[in-house]
Amino acid sequence: MNTNSNSSTPTDKDADEDTGSGTSTDQDSTSTSTSTSTSTDTDSDKGSGTSTDSDGMDAEADKNIMDTSIPNVPCLRTTQQNDGETTTTITKEVENRQTFKNSKGGKFVEVKQVRRMLITRRDGKFVTASIPKPTINKKQRLVKKTKTARRMKQTDDKLSYILGGDYASTMDFAALNAKVVNEPKKKSEFEIRSKDITNSLKNELVRKKFGKSTPTTRLYDYQIEAVLRADSFFKEFETAREPPQMALIVAPPGSGKSGMVALLPYVLNSHKVLILTPSKIISEQLATEFGHGSPQKPFFYKVGMIQNLSLCNKVLERVHLAQSTREVIEIMTNGNLVIVNAQKFGGNSACSLTSQRANVEDRQITLDRLDQFDTIIVDEAHHYPAATWETIVQAFKGKKVVFLTATPYLGTDEKALTLFGALKLVYEIPRNALEGVTIRPMEFIENHFNSVNLKDPAFLDQLHKDVKDILKKHRRQEPREKHPQAMILVATKVEAKAVAAGLGPTATFIIADNQMERNLSAFTKKEKTIAVVCGMLREGYDNSSVTLVVFLRKCKSSVLFEQFCGRRIRMHRLLTGKNPDKTVATVMSYTYFGQRKMWEARERRAEMDPEDEDDE
């Protein structure tokens, strides 16, 4: 085989020389079955005037392939013949230039990698064109490592410059989390103010009960006694180093339970407090006692514990109020005071601890977050169903738990057994001690109607006359209350609409429909004198202008009877002058509904002394 001595390592210089010589080297293949020919060409072979293709391939076609694929680059052609089939492979070296930016100086550095392109033809037909991956020799790898080390050094220098010098390179987020876990928790406002507020309450109680000096607040003595009794109850368990039992405070409607709820976290030296309520309305009312919302004034300011409204932000914890089921789990880690509807933890809600819909993971998340609270206050406890009771009792074992209820439980029903089996009565406020202080005295009137049809015009006319006469009597008793109002309880929404329509334009109905807010607003603003309800406003609606309640249904629940009576007898504390409200509130019904027995049972409970119950 005769070949050019420089053909195995083609360069740009070799290509120029071949072009100028106009000659090529071929192999004579007349006497052998297989022959190989190697030559060096350029894409400018047209200047030589001589074809170098010894296998008979068209030189112009080869030139076109080279021009369209890898023009102006030296090539090495190899021709093989095997059993009459000719294969020509053209290899060209391609410079692949990659550009990198130096992180320090901002200059551009070119890195050159040689890649070989293989073009194969058989019998004059194009077969393949491929570019094998470039190989990096040891020298190139060493250069690459050196450049990488240089870039890392430049990066460290740049970080040091950006961060202003040395930085703690050993600190990472795992170490940060471990550090946070081991740090002492930040005190809540309840803990910070606990000692001062508790001592102030004790001194105020001495002033009120023994008259040694003038009281400085508008707190009632029984409010102070109730929260101090709860504190003493839990301290007994702390001294004995035993898990505490749950406490129960019985406070009739109008006694100021909301104020007790506001005081308890401070007196109990709480860190994180969860308040459970039976409804959205009561949740919002309790939130205002802690300063949530505007222009509502917090309880501490209203009773004179804090004289300057601007100081409330320094004493009160921020309220987190859960408005929907989805917010319950999310909101429980956001602050030290969370108010939630207790029904979110029972029933069929997704985050319920008792719901079959709640999966194991969601239930465990809820339990873990509930465990963060050290104090739980359950308001209006008598409203919760037995399933919710059991859930609360089981979920909060070992915590400081205080239940407040308006109605003491008598009997042996499931709820009573669940309640008194887990709770200890620490304080009860007798209703007769509140009459003339925070609630109005009451009378019961039963008019004779042995058969009642709520759609009968004759009955509705008599009802309207009875209501009008009693309200007129209340105006004479207390002239400062110029617009006393009445509330009527029926069994269904249909009855509520029918009775309101029969009583004329001075009456409205308040039920769960799209008119509820509008009708409620009209009644609150005294645009209407009479409101007919079917249960929606038994709880959470305070209107001291309501002096008359009427039962137009057969009520057999002592809880329902007590709540509907009690919510309408709150004394009007905002009347002008220093004299208390003189109105004697009225509870009215008709013989057909049989409510006298319920009234007499209520009176017997009011005459019972809580201390006598403890002696039994």
Automatic annotation (TrEMBL):
InterPro entries: AAA+_ATPase, Helicase/UvrB_N, Helicase_ATP-bd, Helicase_Restrict-Modif_Enz, P-loop_NTPase. One of its GO terms (molecular function) is DNA binding. The keyword Nucleotide-binding applies. Keywords: ATP-binding, Helicase, Hydrolase, Nucleotide-binding. SUPFAM superfamilies: P-loop containing nucleoside triphosphate hydrolases (SSF52540). Residues 20-54, 78-87 have a biased composition (Low complexity). Gene3D superfamilies: P-loop containing nucleotide triphosphate hydrolases. It holds the Pfam family ResIII. Residues 1-10 have a biased composition (Polar residues). GO terms for cellular component: cytosol. It comes from the Eukaryota. Residues 238-426 form the Helicase ATP-binding domain. This is Putative ATP-dependent helicase IRC3. It comes from Folsomia candida (Springtail).
